[in-house]
C-alpha cells in the first residue's frame, strides 16, 4: 500500500465508523473518533468498561493521523505570519518562562493533547485499523440496490440469495506464501462462482430490503453451500505444484536423521539415571523439527455474508 | 507433545478444522468456525456488519498477503530506516537457507540486532511467528524493546511482572527467565522464535544458563554473539548443539574430525562447510560496510586566575577532609567530585557545596570553610570553557552535541547559549520518553546545539550530527565510548570530529591524558574497550581507582603522575595483549575465525 492508498483507506474507515473529521489535507486527518472507533483504536478497555458500567456519556479522543509524513512536515514548517501579531504581553511572558526551562518557545503547550499517529504500511496503527475493520466487517447481510429503470410500481424483481466467502490459503513449511480466494454459492441452484468478491464490488449494496423485489426460495441448505465451497477450493488446490512440499519433507527427514544420529549414541551410553532426560530432550527436538519443517496447507475464512442479488443463477 | 494443536487456535473439544489429503506430502486443513457464527447470526437476525468495513477487511488481507516464499516482505514495512545491504543479505540467508536457526556472529557494531529484528519482523509479517522470546543481558532489555518498537514497529514488551509473559513478544534477561516463578512459565511455552543475545555466555555446557537454554521449546532460534569462540572449539560446538544437535556430529566425532588441539582445527574446509549452514559472520573489512573517519582534538585551556584560585581552594579542602578521615576512602569519593566539578562550571560546584552544607550540623567547623569556597565562587565572572565552546560552535557552524557530566553545568550552558542568541536544547536521563523525543526533534530541526548529560543506551542516535564537544569527561571509559557511539556509528555519512576541552594544571589534564594517550580510547574500535576493561584485574572500577590515586597523592604532583602512569601502562599492556592475540580483537581463537570468513580481508581499524 502506498501513501495515497493508505490515505484513502483511513478516510473510508473514518467515514464508515461515523468519526467527525475536524481537519484534513492530502497528508493528514485530525479527527474526533466516534465511540465505536474509539473502542477499537485507543487501547483503553478500562475506560470503556467504566463507561459501560456507569452509563456515563463517553468522551472520545481526538487523533491526528499522518498518512504522508514528508508532505505533512513540509506543510507544518511553512511559516504562519499572521500569528505573530496575536501574542500579547502576557503570552510573551509565559513563553519566556517556558523558554527558560525548555530552551525554546511554544505557546501552544497548553492546548489539549492530540496524539499523533503516523500511518504507514507496517505501522502498528495501520495494523490496528486493519484489525478494527476486520472486527466490524466479518459477517454481512446485504441486498443489491434495485435498478431504477425497471422500478415500475407493480412489477417485482426476482432476487437470488448467495453465500459469499473470502478465504485465505496458506502454504507453509519453514517458509510460507499465501493466496486469497473468493467463492459465491447460489443458494437457489448451488452454482459456485469464483472471484465472487470482485463481482460484488461492481454492485451497489445496501443492508435494507429494497421495495418491489422478491427473494427466490432457496433450493439448497447453508450446510450444503458450505461443502460446495470447500469442494471448489479443494479441486482448485489439487492442481497446484507441490514440489515445495516435497522439498520441505526431504529437509525434515534430513534434520530428523541428523538428530537421531546425535541422540542415539548418547542414549546408548547414558546411565539409567540420565536416560529419561535425554530421551525427553530427543523427543522435544524431534517435535520442534516437525513443527519447523512439516509442510501444510491451511484455509481460513477472512469474512463472509449472505448477498441477495438480482436475477436467478 | 504436539505443536499443531497449539499453533492453530484450536477451541476445546471438537476441532473446527476439517482435514483432507491434497498431495502425498501435504494435507489441507479447512477452518469451519466461521460457519457456526454465520448460522448463529442468521438465526438471531443479526447483528450484521458494515459493507464498507467488509471491503476494508478484505483489502487489508490483500495488502498483507505474502505472495512468494522468497522475497523479503518486511522491507516495505520499515519506512523509518533502511537496513544496510549486509544486514538484508544476512536476514534472507537465515530465512531461506538456514530454516530460521542460525548463529549471527557479526563483529561488534555491524548491527546484529538489526539482522535479528529483520528476521523476526519477516516471520511476523508472514504469520510464521506470533510468540517470540528475546533473552538478553539485563542492561540491554530496554534498548531491545525500544529498537524493536521504533525501528521495526514490533510491540515488544520488557518482562517486568509475572503477567508480562502473556504478551506475544517479550524481552527478558536470562537471569530472570531461568529463576522461579518465571522458569515454569517460560519452559511451558512453545515459542515460535527465540533470540539469545550475547550468546557466548552460553558456551559452557555445565552452566545453568546452558541447561536452561536446551530446555526451551522453540521453532526458530537465533544466537547472537560477536565472539563465537573465545577460548576453545568446544564452545562453538556447544552453541551449535543448541541450534542443531548433530550438525558437527556427536561430541566424539567432532573431536576426532575437526580438532587437533583445543584451539587448533583440522579439516578446515569441511568444518567451514558444516559451519556455513548454521553461522553467518560479517566483518568490518567486508565490502559494503563502511565507517567514516574519526578525528579527535584536545583543546587545552588555562583557567582564569579566579577559577584557578577556586580549584586550588577546593583541592585543599578535599585533601584536608581526606587527612581528617584517616584515609577512609569510601566516604571520600564524593568529595573528589568537587574537584572535577570545578573543571566544569562554578554552578556545578556550587550545587554540591550547598548540598554538603545542608548535611553538616549548625555548629560544624566545616560550615565556615564551605562559605569560604562559596565566596571564591562569587569571584568568578566568566567560564573559560564555555567561552571556548561557543567559539568552536560558531566556527563549525553546524549541528553539534555537547556532553557534560553535570546537570548544573547543563543548565548554565543552556542559559549561556541563549544569552548569545544560539538555540540549544537539553537532553537528560530523567526526562520521560515523550520529552526526550521532543528534544530530539527540536535538535533535528531548528536547534543547533544539543546539551546532553546522558549518552547511555536508549535510542539517541545522532547520525545527522558529526561534531561533538566533551565539555568534561567521565572517568568511566565506557561512558566516553557510549558518547562517541551516539554519533560515530553505521549510517554516519560524514567524518566525525570530537573535541575534548581540557583545563591545564588540573585533575582533568591527567584524565584526558590517561584516556587519550594511554588507553587510546578515542581510536579504539567500537566494542573493543569492553574487552580491555573486562581483563583489567581487581574488582574495582577504573573510576574508583582514579579517585583513590587522586586522594592519596593530594598535592604531590609527582606521586600522582607516577600512579597514573602505572595505571595507564597496565591498561596499554592489556590492550596490546588483546591486539596481539590476533588481528581480530574479539576472538582468542582468531585463526579459525579468520579462515571461516572467506570474504574477510584484513580488519580495518577505523581511528
TrEMBL record, chain A:
Pfam families in the cross-refs: YqhG
Q: InterPro entries, alphabetically? A: YqhG (IPR024562)
The protein depicted here goes by the name YqhG
TrEMBL record, chain B:
UniProt-listed InterPro entries: DEXDc_RapA, Helicase_ATP-bd, Helicase_C-like, P-loop_NTPase, SNF2-like_sf, SNF2/RAD54-like_C, SNF2_N
Q: Which Pfam families match?
A: Helicase_C, SNF2-rel_dom
Task: Please report the stretch or stretches of sequence annotated as the Helicase ATP-binding domain.
Answer: 93-246
Q: Where is the composition biased (Polar residues)?
A: 1-13
For this protein, the record's SMART domains field holds:
DEXDc, HELICc
Ranges for the region named Disordered are: 1-22
Lineage, top-rank taxon, reads Bacteria
> Which UniProt keywords are present, listed alphabetically?
ATP-binding, Helicase, Hydrolase, Nucleotide-binding
Q: Is the Transmembrane helix keyword given for this protein?
A: no
| Domain Helicase C-terminal, chain residue ranges per copy | 385-537
One annotated GO molecular function is:
helicase activity
The entry's protein name is: DEAD/DEAH box helicase
Record the organism.
Answer: Paenibacillus pinisoli
